[in-house]
Amino acid sequence: MRILPFGFVGLLLLAVLAVCYAQLTAQMPFNLALQSFLHTDWQSVISIKLSLTWWPRLFTTLICGAALAVAGVLMQQVLRNPIASPSTLGVATGASFGLMLATLYAPWLIEISHSLVALMGGLITMALVFALSWRRALSPTIVVITGLVINLYFGAFSTVLLILNEEKLSGLMIWGAGSLVQTGWENVQYLLPKVIIATGAAFLFLKPLSLLELTESGAKSLGVSLAKLRFICLGLAVLLTSWVVASVGVIGFIGLAAPAITRLLGVRRLAPKLIVAMIIGALLLTLTDLLIQSLPGYMPMYIQTGAATAALGAPLMLWLLPKLSMKHQTQTETVLTRHTPHVRRFGKKSILLTAAMLVLGLAVFSTVSLQNQGWQWLLLNGEWSMLDWRLPRLLTALLAGAMLAVAGTIIQRISGNPMASPEVIGISSGTAIGLILSLYTGLAAGITGMYISGLIGAAISMLIIVLLNRKSGFQPERVLLTGVAITALLNAIQTIILAGGDPRNYQFLAWMSGSTYYVTYQTLLMTLVCTLVLVSLVFLFTKWLDILPLGQASAQSLGVRVSRSRLVLLAISACLTVAATLVVGPLSFVGLMAPHLARMLGFNRAKEHLIAAALVGSFLMLFADWLGRQWLYPQEIPAGMVASILGGLYLLWGLQRL
Amino acid sequence: MIVHSIKGLGLTTLLLCLSSWTLHAEPQRLVSIDWSHTETLLGLGVTPVGATQKAAYNAWVKEPSIPAESVDIGLRTQPNLERLAELKPDHIFVSPAYQYHQARLEKIAPVTAISIYADGKANWQALQNFTNTMAAAIGKEEAAQQLITRSESTLQQLKASLPSKPQADLLMIQFMDARHVRVFGQNSMYQIALNQLGIKNAWPGDTNAWGFALVGIDHLLNIKGQFVVVDPLPAGAKEHLEQDRLWQYLIKESGHPVLRIEPVWSFGAIPSTVRFATLITQAITEQEAN
């Protein structure tokens, strides 16, 4: 029984040692190379190179790998969620966002201490996640979802900053990709004592943590204060992650992979699990890094270790998903049930009101705008030719908003999960991956090529979602986690591309961030056709949408074939997402926000819910597009980004009330 | 029939001449979307009515600086089309990398899509071609010739003013963060300037189409040359580098002091090249004087 873990660790160790040996002997005789570890021979360039770069790098990777693995085990244990990990909970994003802000607006902070800024960023982000999920006693699902939302939110903000300040921030991109290049022993000195202390502290909590493996109520009855335990252990995990992120940059997925592999090796008890995961994490990261160092030429600079582990980790996560025995967690109570009592008063009147707002908005937003001479109203200055530029953009944004809202409504209703949306389940990310690959391999030139490759990407991610979730009958948590994995892959690819520093990247970034900038009458027409066809298709299935939220059992007893109807509806929402993503990018919380707002206005029946959500979504995107063009005039903030920033605020507020 | 067509041709030519004459009579309204276009136009003595990211330009390209009367039209990747249309330009210069713009820009004014980098063949001749093409599009051929001649003579003067003792090979780097640098080599603006000054570049490795390689500073071991650090240093990098043993060792090993150069636009045209040549010559001369 013990053979498997020992065998695996041994094999990994052998591989690491072999590559180390090969790299060292390629430089100088082995005994001299070993000597260079203990003392530097200042006469020999090779000895200096080894002792100031190679050896520190080896130890930094070992420490970072171990620290991330411990953080991963802690998070997974506390949240009882096998997919929780430092990268899913927003710590890394928070740290990098903090560094960005400091670089731009308070460089003196960075001069004081680079790591401190990153650390603060990570801690503040995590504190935010904690604060938002506190009311639910840091319930695992809520924590993971909050982490995800914060991840996306800071991601959106970072993108805006990046677009506006490409020169100043290009260095941060390298850090963001997790380059482990070392130039001395400072990082080892910084990390080693902290990691040892934090890990030691983690071992103190082994016993209460093991109890968490029982059910929540079981743990409670044994006298464990859940909230306190969760707080302390998550805090330790966050500290470990932030230290690593602060010193070497964002390293994805070791914190996920090491515990997962340990579990697959059959290590069940917590103490050995922690130790084995630590060793595996250290060796895995080191092996990856050593192999990347052995790549020829400049490839190590373009494929950096952090991004590489993230890119490798995403498929690993997808592969792990079906293997997880997911205890059916008590589902997040949906907003669905919450708002039912006090809604009847609204109804038709508010639909009319929203529709009127939309028309009014279109009229105002297309005529009022900043121009060369400040604020102008077309009715007064008569420059109607401006409409030629504005209308296609505004209308396309409006349509995209409607499509995303409808897609979001479908997904939320069938999953019974108020936090699900096309952005969250990974369809948007899949579309974006398709686009990126086609853009950089040169396979698709021009707008049509981009549409097609986006569609292929979305179809593949849909296929992945369906294949991985068919057996479980599209259980909400699983679908959500599939989305997390796909989004992680997108992030990894994006990071690798941006770290290269190719000036063309910013074109890609601008496009990725979802701007209506590239919209022409042609694209408007395409979007219009998509909207009309797909949205009217949805209205054929409103009966399913009414029944599915009642739950699997009730739906079946009412004669609905649950899996099949879910599949059909998911497919439609995928198409809706692609059509919208091509215009407003993979990130905009409209798909999440509009259905919520519609429900708050009091629309519960599927048909009303759809109409209201579509109207709200349209108005949001319309406003986002207009605001994005005025906010920093003459620079434009992509509509998708504005929507994310506004939507994120709403979401954070909503989460806290959930 | 033939007579008729000759007549027609003559008329067209006359009209063309007239139109270009009237065009030249009043200042042309030009818009430059890439910074290499902006600096070239300014070098030709033309002030564009619209230019992109003025504040960032003045921080990174510095000279020739954009006069206040030029209107900021937003990002290079997404110039503000409404503002652009309002400016009613006669001609727009854009980098071919931003291909998606072109069709719509053409609705506003004739477009010339041109760039120096990206095809991996940047050299002094390419800079001249770039300048001449831009000038030809706006009928400023003479100004272009003047700019080139003036720049060449400046470069020659600079070359002549260099200290007589042989100059060490230079290694031109720009810090991205405390551990990573862009090293500039073949295809780079810096290389073109060095060629004109007769100084060798110490970087033996490959570079990308924009003339740089992104490397960790550990890659600079074993390379014999004097360091030229192009500003700005990223926040916090200065403090870190003062403590960094590898960097201190590299400086010591190079046997020369580090030359720090104020910001120059790494992807610039003739004005940036001359500016860098001037700055590096100054730095070398000052170092010699000490």
Automatic annotation (TrEMBL), chain A:
Topology versus the membrane: Multi-pass membrane protein
Principal location: membrane
Domain of life per record: Bacteria
Parts of the chain that traverse the membrane: 54-75, 87-110, 116-134, 141-164, 243-262, 274-295, 301-321, 351-371, 391-412, 424-443, 449-468, 480-499, 519-541, 567-589, 609-627, 639-656
Keyword flag Cell membrane: yes
GO terms of biological process kind: siderophore-iron import into cell
Keywords: Cell membrane, Membrane, Transmembrane, Transmembrane helix, Transport
Subcellular location: Cell membrane
GO terms of molecular function: transmembrane transporter activity
InterPro entries linked to this entry: ABC_BtuC-like, ABC_transptr_permease_BtuC
Cellular component terms per the entry's GO annotation: plasma membrane
Family the UniProt entry places it in: Belongs to the binding-protein-dependent transport system permease family. FecCD subfamily.
Protein name according to UniProt: Iron complex transport system permease protein
Automatic annotation (TrEMBL), chain B:
Family annotation (Gene3D superfamilies): Nitrogenase molybdenum iron protein domain
Residues covered by the Fe/B12 periplasmic-binding domain: 29-288
Annotated keywords: Ion transport, Iron, Iron transport, Signal, Transport
This protein's GO CC annotations: outer membrane-bounded periplasmic space
Keyword Signal in record: yes
Chief location category: other
Gene Ontology biological process terms in this record: iron coordination entity transport
Transmembrane segments: none
Superkingdom of origin organism: Bacteria
Subcellular location, record wording: Cell envelope
Family: Belongs to the bacterial solute-binding protein 8 family.
UniProt-listed PANTHER family: IRON III DICITRATE-BINDING PERIPLASMIC PROTEIN, IRON(3+)-HYDROXAMATE-BINDING PROTEIN FHUD
Protein name: Iron complex transport system substrate-binding protein
The organism's taxonomic lineage, starting at the top: Bacteria, Pseudomonadati, Pseudomonadota, Gammaproteobacteria, Oceanospirillales
